[in-house]
Sequence to fold (152 residues):
Amino acid sequence: MHQRLCYVDLRVWYVAVPRVRYMRQSHTVIAGSTVELLCRIWGWPLPHVTWHRLGSQGPNSRLPLHEEDGRFTLRDGVAVAPPGGTVINATLVISDVRPSDRDTYVCDISSYVDGAWRYDNGTVLVRVKGHCSFDICVSVCNMSFTTDRMRL
Fold:
């Protein structure tokens, strides 16, 4: 009696529509400090991430984030979707924050799933407070608070 061996190549393709899973609604930061805006996403294949700011012209205007002085930088992050992986540009870092940086920042994500492009986005408002030259500044859990001058 002869046995025949049969090999089957079985591949399972996991797909998930891109979604912004978490973004803080707002950050209040002290002028001159650094703020990190994290866009936690879900999706497979890993979504493409782009950032822009709305500006005072309204939701249809998109202002560039990259300035000649390089205060705006992008960092990679980790996807929360199985099997995980590195997400390019998932975190926007603004160094030496200025009052003019007060704006709504948008994390746009997209990926090609089931023969079509799928999209999602999240927004975060950045508020900027003045320098702490005479104030007491306390940083707790990535949030900045400013207290009034202490009176003796």
